[in-house]
Amino acid sequence: MDIVQVVISGILLGGVYTLFATGLNLIFGVMKIINLGHGELMMLGAYITFFLSTSAGVNPLVSIPVAAIAMAVLGWILQFALVERVVNQPAINSLLLTFGLSTLMMGVALNLWTSNFRSVIYEPLTGSWTILTISFSRSRLVAFFIAILVTGGMWLFLKRSTFGKSIRATSQHPQVAQLCGIDVRQVRFATFALGSAMAAVSGSLIAMIFTVSPEMGRMFIGKGFAIIVLGGLGSFAGAFLGALILGVSETLTAFFTNTQIAEGVAYLILLLVLVVRPSGLFGKAEE
Amino acid sequence: MATRTPPVTDQAPNDTNVDAYTPPGWEKYIGWAYLVGLIISVIFLLRLPIAADAYTVTLTLTVLLVITLSTSWNWLSGFGGYTSFAHAGFFGIGSYIGALLLHYEKMHWIPVMIVAGIGCGIIGFLVGLPTLRLRGPYFAIAMLAFTELCRVIALAWDDVTLGGNGVFLPILRLQLPEENMSFWEEAQMTFHNNQNYYAMLVLATIACIWSYVLGTSRWGLKLLAIRDDEVAAQAMGIKTTYVKVTTFAGSAVFPGIAGAIYARHVGYIDPVTVFAIIWSIRAITTSIFGGRGTIIGPILGAVVLTLVSEKVWEQDPNLYQIVYGGIIILVVLFMPGGLMALLQQRNIFPRSRRI
Amino acid sequence: MSASKVNRRELMRRAAILGVSVPAMSALLAAEAGAQATPAGTVAAAPTGDPIRIGASVSTTGTNGRTGLYQQEAYLLWEAQKNASGGLLGRPVEMVLYDDQSDPTTGARLYERLITEDQVDLVMGPYASGVTQAVAQITERYGYPLLVAGASANSIWESGFRAIFGVYSVAGDYFKDIITTIAPAQDYKTAAVIYEDAVFPMSTGQGAVTTLQDQGIEVVLEESYPQKATDVSSVLTKIRDLDPDMLIGGSYLPDSVLIVRQAKELGLNPRLYAFSVGAAQPDFVETLGADANYVLGPSMWEPEIETEGNADFMAAYQQMWDRDPDYHSATGYAGCQILERAVTNVGELDLEALAEALSSLTMNTILPGEYRVDETGKQIGHIPLTVQWQDGQKIIVAPEDQQTGELNLPTPPWDERS
């Protein structure tokens, strides 16, 4: 039964990673930019939820859309003012720029809110539901479903809506998309805003599960890379599956060896996949 | 995979707009100018511990450390165009090899430094072989993962690395000056009290000389060819894999030794500090700020940026992160060619690949 | 950066956290100035001459920023009190303070800077074991004795330093009372020990394992987890299967909270919970609410204990900082008391004589027990307390002569709690 419990914990953990990774992947898909500042966008989302729930008494679940919208606006501004300038430049420029952004946002957060660990207490979501001796952590289960809902919604949006199709077209081939009359610039703005919003939602959910601190982004960014590389860079469904696989491999490794070694799983997967099959498990072979 | 865009051309040394360009007259003496500059700096720096206080010496040691990191980073990533985030990994591995050897074996420190360097070179070769087939962002992510993996291994492998407890190195106690010391005794004392500073000075000097030798050699040309168009370079008969992997392994030696010296200097290391991604970022930012793909650029960048960030940090350690993040953004946006490109545009420095 | 700048800065920061307006902040600054006139109502001769400059770097930001701030406040309180009551050796005292952001390398650089650039006369210890390990190398190199007022990892005193002196018990002894007194009384036979892979938590965890083995209690699981862990469900699942009587965590506050939360989620029900950091901190109960009940933990000091000068310390601290001190404030303050006594005994600022004095000194501080170190500089006179949360109240349950309430064990299973 333990093994089932561990797998369940892993799947729920994967759910927490999903949103974060799909946002990262969306941005990479469209712009071929690895956003090293994604973790800090998540962190800001977490702080929005923290402050709304503790200072204004807003239900943390209600704060999620607020965080999403706020970060979408910030994401749009960042893209407009900074990131847009390094699109189509060598990878090092965007890597450095987003790293600079990450350091800057973390520094600002440290100065404004100090490095204290904080957490959002939402009483109904503490503890767990037990089914047949398997515990389902309430906060994680709820986060898991919200993550699936948002990711699924995003998937439908990309699949069905006209604008979603423009995003996909741009991510497949920007030049051709432009020739077809798609405003590629506008698509990039929207993508970064959407990606930031997804980071914010994941931050809000993480705030209810873990503790909130300015450094929290750095803890997740490496795992985010592992997931999207595993699932295939730019592949939307791949990121979702990659997140679940990473979550389960982490908890299983921790169960059979120890938590320390489990910490290395993400990076090992990342290196192995890159070397053996750079297109990821679910991506199409390129080049 | 994104189609590789050609590198920013305003800084490429082989950008020859022949009509509008007349090189400064001293261009043909670059090699001599470099040598004389180096000798003067080294003589000045050799005397520094006698003339200045301990704080200045430590600050200079940091500058020399960053020069070593950025210069060695530049070989593969500046000349060769492969952005590597592995320097932090090699820096950490070097620190750990050095610290553990000193901690357990109590070997003399100079051979320990060499072992640390060779160890990193071998690991660099083994890591580079499979990963240097990756391009652009893929290689960058792989090297980020490599660094993180090293950190996790250092933490989890308790039996050898002592895990999160960190490693203590033998305590270096200072010799105090005595009455009526002869010149020779005083020189010995200065050397004893500043061993790590002198070690770093030697290392940085070797890195600078090697940078010139590499930059002006055929090997350097091959790297530039790989940066500009790898497929074409291969078609021209350059064994690209061989060139890339060897350069990568060679450039891993320097952060390795630097890490070992650093460990000895601070006396206590732990995985989180020495495997911090910031060591890579420092190498990258200073190289770009100075001018990547040039010989002097990374040195210039290391001196200016380290002194500036040190001043900011002194003023307010809390603001440091914000300012550092801001500097990175500004450099990327407004001076991707670095200081060297600015100086070359104003015709102060010749547009030669020998600079 | 001058001491007053840090001081003011921290006040602003704190005011911002509390949501205090600007006028209220000026009031705080005034209170700080006012505090200088408070100590015991004695009117002492004003200190004269060049100030004695005491350097320290304390983590007021970074991972340990929250607890480090308490220590810094204690240093500043002592400075203010000394200057209002005749100073040290008749000279005013000036604390030169920096923030190392909880980073060991930064801490070491700052102490080197304090000693070589700022040329301070004396130094006080930083906060947290990792930073202290790095800093000890520097102070030792320059021959400055270091009073470790904010760290306790055993390894600090196992590295052959000459002049590093502990102010409170080493981390390896944190669970001694729980294991040697409380566990036998409850007839507990098994324990699981998990700890974070960092200097201090490892010391507490490994110390607990040794003590458990000496006591003949079976350690059914010993495992470390990475720093800043976000998920410990797997190791807790393993422990749930083993069903030990005790779960002992070598952990900082965030992981203590994480462990309790996930233990509840997984229905893990040991009869006793103990964490090295957490149980003594008010934040623990603020974060966990009723789930914090029954949790045990070591504390180096508590407000209500009766030690020499403790009541005065409480009053002065509350007046100056407008909040209650934490045990990290008390250890910081005790460190200053010890330094003061040693300097007074020596009568001058001779570093070697001072190191000598610190190694042979025995005195009472506001901490329980006394200050006494062995030949390595390790603290052996201090008596740590054990506390337990009961209905949102922190109760001292051991040692017997300091008890403020009865021990409440065993911890009921999660589903039987109201």
Tell me about this structure.
The complex is a heterotrimer of chains A (287), B (355) and C (418). Chain A has one domain: Orthogonal Bundle (ABC transporter involved in vitamin B12 uptake, BtuC). Chain A is globular, with a radius of gyration of 18 Å. The N and C termini of chain A lie far apart (45 Å). Chain A is built from 11 helices and 2 strands; from the N terminus they run ααααββααααααα. In chain A, strands 1-2 form a two-stranded antiparallel ribbon. The model of chain A has no long low-confidence stretch (mean pLDDT 85). Chain A has 287 residues and is mainly alpha-helical. By secondary structure, chain B is mainly alpha-helical. Chain B has a domain at 52-170 and 184-276. Chain B contains 16 helices and 2 strands. Chain B has helices spanning 30-51, 54-79, 87-105, 109-131, 136-156, 158-161, 183-193, 195-215, 218-228, 230-235, 240-266, 271-274, 278-290, 297-315, 317-334, 338-345, and strands at 167-168, 268-269. In chain B, helix 3 (87-105) crosses helix 11 (240-266) and helix 3 (87-105) crosses helix 13 (278-290). Chain B is globular and about 60 Å long. Chain B starts with 29 loop residues before the first helix and ends in a 10-residue tail after the last helix. Mean pLDDT of chain B is 85; it is low at 1-16. Chain C is globular, with a radius of gyration of 21 Å. Chain C has 418 residues and is α/β, with parallel strands linked by helices. Chain C folds into 2 domains: 3-169 and 305-360, Response regulator (Rossmann fold); 173-299 and 385-416, Rossmann fold, CATH 3.40.50.2300. Chain C starts with a helix and ends in a 20-residue tail after the last strand. Chain C contains 13 helices and 12 strands. The chains are: A mainly alpha (287), B mainly alpha (355), C alpha/beta (418).
Brief overview, please?
The complex is a heterotrimer of chains A (287), B (355) and C (418). Chain B is mainly α and 355 residues long.
Structure characteristics:
heterotrimer; A: 287 residues; two-stranded antiparallel ribbon; B: 355 residues; 16 helices; 1% strand
